[in-house]
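Structure ticket #2291
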Amino acid sequence: MLPWWELSFYLCASLGFHLYSFYEVYKASREHEEELDRQFDLEIGTLFGGLKKDPNDFEWSFWMEWGKQRLVRFLFGHMVVSQMANVLARKHRPWILGAYGMWASWCVLGAQGTAIIFLHTLISFCVAQLRSLALTWLCSLFLLSTLRLQDVEEVKRGWYQTENEYYLLQFTLTVRCLYYTSFSLEFCWQQMPNGHSFYSFPWLVAYVFYYPVFHNGPILSFPEFIAKVQQQEYCSLKSNLSAFAVGLGRLLCYWWLAELMVHLMYMHAIYSSASLLKAVSCWTLGGLALAHVLFFYLKYLVLFGVPALLMRLDGLTPPPLPRCVSTMFSFTGMWRYFDVGLHDFLIRYVYIPVGGSQHGLLGTLFSTAVTFAFVSFWHGGYDYLWCWAALNWLGVTVENVVQRLVRTPCIQDSVIQFLSPQARRRFHAALASCSTSMLILSNLVFLGGSQVGKIYWNRIFIQGLVPGHRRNRTEETGPGAVG
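Resolution: structure written out below.
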């Protein structure tokens, strides 16, 4: 361990950098408020003394609007039905919750939306009867690809009056794809089922239409779902309500912090203005990156925290909530600890079946590439997502190669001989800082698109490291230019 004073210094320095860079973002937001309001229609907030709110994070605005309209009511209805079934008909609770999920889907997505989800589920189940992993994956990829066919999109848009209703169906179908894929692959791995098998179509419907995770996840594999359903643990209504109150209070704190960020810092609006992003100071640029990834973290604490709370009340164990991105220092750690459910799905159903790390370095590179290719395709397959996936593949690959090198006896003996335990830890931190900088860049590509990534690359790694670029930019823009 490092001395306490050194750790305290690092902690204070980190907090100081965060707070000062956030202050710079706040100042830039206030300075350019009128310009951003004209371009991006900032909303009048009601929570923080009339401060305007940046509504340009589509995902946050989308789910908050749907939550106000319908989803909170149906999630609350699920909790009530689940607790009543737990008391009155515990053995039949999976079927009661599955039926409730189908009814809630009918109310929210309509008859056509529910029918298309049911049809995808039925097709996947029928293909799984052939017990072919290749055909099962081809079926899932085909069903996923139909979500991006223009003619199919136009048909689905015709079912709804608003774009938000269409997008909700698209999000739901995307997440449901991983659920019926999990069931079908597990079915293929099973021995011939007996009369009491859980690998039947009614159980698949109960799993796919389990409502807390229906629209946005998190991802829960079929074996995990069945393992908890089989236990049939009984919890008193009083203890469940107590756990619900504590969890709800925590979620409200996360939601309040996220709302505070979009009221004080217009980071999403600034990211949408390339000219402004190129002109802000370096401190503001760094603060925008930190604020953006921390808001993303808070957002998913809320979006995953709500279903996780209901899952615990149902006796299920949800995937752990995302770990704070400010504590992440590697690509491997980011994938392992942010979206744990998605990570477990990728490892179990993609990485290991393709070969994993069992076939040497080239096999590992191939398995990792296939995994990230699937992630990019599942998220939508847009150009910036392929770029993001390539950066993550490169980052994970470099980290694994460095780890292999450091573990070789020659290097390991030299490090132990010449460096003390404290010095080795500092050296590890120095290496991790390189990975962290590229991790932040890849996250910005994912959150803001390729243009945002290029601006950060040019300003930090080109202008910031090459004095000639910085001097030329100053001469072109004049001494009064910001940044």
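Closing remark: Residues 93-128 form the longest helix (36 residues).
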